[in-house]
Write a structure and sequence with these properties.
The protein is α+β, with helices and mostly antiparallel strands. It is elongated.
Length: about 400
C-alpha cells in the first residue's frame, strides 16, 4: 500500500527540504509524521487488540464426585426436647425469713446438701417450749404413779374408798397421754427446726436461686430446682404408625420382660447438626395416643458425662427403622435448592455441563440420597457449581471432602 497518496487525500501536506530550517516548517513537518504514524497504526492488520481477541479463554475448573450406589439405613426422626431425668423443686417446709444461700448457682450439688437456711430462732424457742411442756407432763405422770402405788394397798384393806383409787388410776392414764402428746410436740418442734436448713432432694445441677436473702418464704415458695442430668431424658412424639413398629419392644419394657437401656438404638442430632457421640435407649411410652395430634409421647435417655446436655435443649431423636437397598448418593453440596426444587450439575464424557432436576430422599452423613435424576457412576459437580453453565465446557478434578477448609 502506498502511504503518500492516502495521506494527501486525507489532507496531509509534505514540505520541501528547505522547510526544515524554520520553526514553523519544523512544526508542520513533525505534525505530518505524527499523522503518518497514527494512520499506519489504524490501518495495520496486525494490531495488539486483534491479537488478544484471537486468544481463547480456558474452560473453568470444577471438582466432581461420582454417584455412589450402596445400601443405606432408613431413619425415623422426631423433634425432641431434653429434660432432667429427675427434676426436684426445692421448697421450704416451714415459713420463715431466708437467712443464707449455701450453694453456687449452676453447680453440682449432692443429695441432702444444705442449699438455704431459714432464721432458726423462732423454731428454737418453740422447741424449748415443747421440751418444757414435756418435762411438766412427765412430772405430773410421776405424781400420779406415786398416788396409784400408795392407794392401791390401802384400797385393798378398805382404808380408803375404792373410788379414790379409781380416780388415781384415771389421773395416771391422763398423765401418760399428756406425756405422749408432749413428746410428739417436741419431735415436731425438732423437725421444724431441722427444716430451717433446706436440703437438696437429689444429686444434680442446681439452677438459679428464685429466693433472695431476707425474703419471707414458705411451703409454696420454689427456691430453686435441682435436675439430675446424667442420664438425661429426651422427650419426643411419634405417629401411631411409627409407634406400631416399636410396639413389641416397648411392651417388653412396660411388662418388665426387658430392662430399659438393654438396647441402645437412639441417636441424638443436636441443634448445630452434630450427632451426639453416645447412643441412647428407650425409657417409656405414654399411656395413650393424643387424639388431637395422633401422636404418642415417648421418652429416651442418654448418658451425659460432664453435663454437656442440659434441660431445655432441642434436638432430633432418630432410630434406624429399615434399609434402602441400592440407594444413589451424592455429596450434599452437589444439590442446589431453588424454590423447593432440587438440581445437580452433571458432567458428561465430553466434559460438558448439564443442569439436571432431581428428587431427593434422606440425608446420610455428608451425602444425600437421590431417588430420581441420576445414574450410578455419573459425575456431578461438588465444588464450583457457579462456574458450570448449561452446555459449557469445564475442566474437572476429583472432589476431596477432606481437603475442604484447608
Amino acid at each position: 500500500m502506498r502511504i503518500e497518496p492516502e495521506l494527501r487525500r486525507s489532507g496531509v501536506q509534505f514540505e520541501n527540504a528547505t522547510s526544515w530550517q524554520t520553526p514553523t516548517a519544523l512544526y508542520r513537518r513533525t505534525s505530518g509524521w505524527v499523522a503518518i504514524l497514527a494512520f499506519v497504526l489504524a490501518v495495520s492488520p496486525t494490531g495488539c487488540t486483534k491479537k488478544g481477541a484471537a486468544t481463547a479463554a480456558a474452560p473453568p475448573e470444577v471438582e466432581v464426585a461420582r454417584v455412589i450406589q450402596q445400601d443405606v439405613p432408613i431413619y425415623t426422626e422426631c423433634i425432641s426436647s431434653l429434660d432432667g431425668y429427675v427434676n426436684a423443686d426445692i421448697r421450704p417446709q416451714v415459713t420463715g425469713y431466708l437467712m443464707k444461700q449455701n450453694y453456687q448457682e449452676g453447680t453440682v450439688v449432692h443429695k441432702d446438701q444444705v442449699l438455704f437456711e431459714i432464721d432458726p430462732r423462732p423454731f428454737e424457742a418453740a422447741l424449748q417450749q415443747a421440751q418444757a411442756q414435756q418435762a411438766q407432763s412427765e412430772a405430773q405422770l410421776g405424781k400420779t404413779r406415786l398416788d396409784v402405788a400408795r392407794d392401791t394397798p390401802l384400797a385393798k384393806e378398805s382404808a380408803i374408798p375404792q373410788a379414790q383409787l379409781d380416780n388415781d388410776i384415771q389421773a395416771n392414764e391422763s398423765a401418760q397421754a399428756m406425756v405422749a402428746a408432749a413428746k410428739a410436740q417436741v419431735e415436731q418442734a425438732q423437725l421444724n427446726l431441722s427444716f430451717t436448713k433446706v436440703r437438696s432432694l437429689v444429686e444434680g445441677i442446681a439452677g438459679l436461686a428464685k429466693g433472695q436473702i431476707g425474703d419471707l418464704v414458705g411451703p409454696t415458695t420454689n427456691l430453686t430446682t435441682v435436675s439430675q442430668v446424667d442420664p438425661i431424658k429426651a422427650y419426643f412424639g411419634i405417629s401411631e404408625q411409627e409407634y406400631l413398629k416399636f410396639a413389641e419392644r416397648i411392651s417388653g419394657i412396660t411388662e418388665g420382660k426387658r430392662r430399659a437401656g438393654e438396647r441402645k438404638v437412639l441417636e441424638l442430632v443436636l441443634s448445630d447438626g452434630s450427632v451426639y457421640p453416645r447412643k441412647g435407649w428407650l425409657v417409656l411410652a405414654d399411656r395413650q395416643v393424643d387424639v388431637k395430634t395422633g401422636t404418642i409421647r415417648m421418652a429416651g435417655a442418654f448418658e451425659n458425662p460432664g453435663s454437656v446436655l442440659r434441660p431445655g435443649m432441642f434436638g432430633r431423636v432418630r432410630a434406624v427403622t429399615g434399609t434402602d437397598k441400592n440407594a444413589l448418593l451424592v455429596p450434599q453440596r452437589s444439590v442446589v435448592e431453588t424454590q423447593g426444587s432440587y438440581s445437580v450439575v452433571v458432567i458428561d464424557a465430553d466434559s460438558k455441563a448439564s443442569i439436571r432436576p432431581v428428587k431427593t430422599g434422606e440425608r446420610v452423613g455428608q451425602m444425600w440420597v437421590i431417588t430420581e435424576g441420576v445414574k450410578p457412576g455419573e459425575q456431578v459437580v461438588a465444588e464450583g457449581i457457579q462456574k458450570a453453565r448449561e452446555g459449557s465446557l469445564v475442566r474437572t478434578k476429583q472432589f476431596n471432602p477432606a481437603g475442604q477448609g484447608e
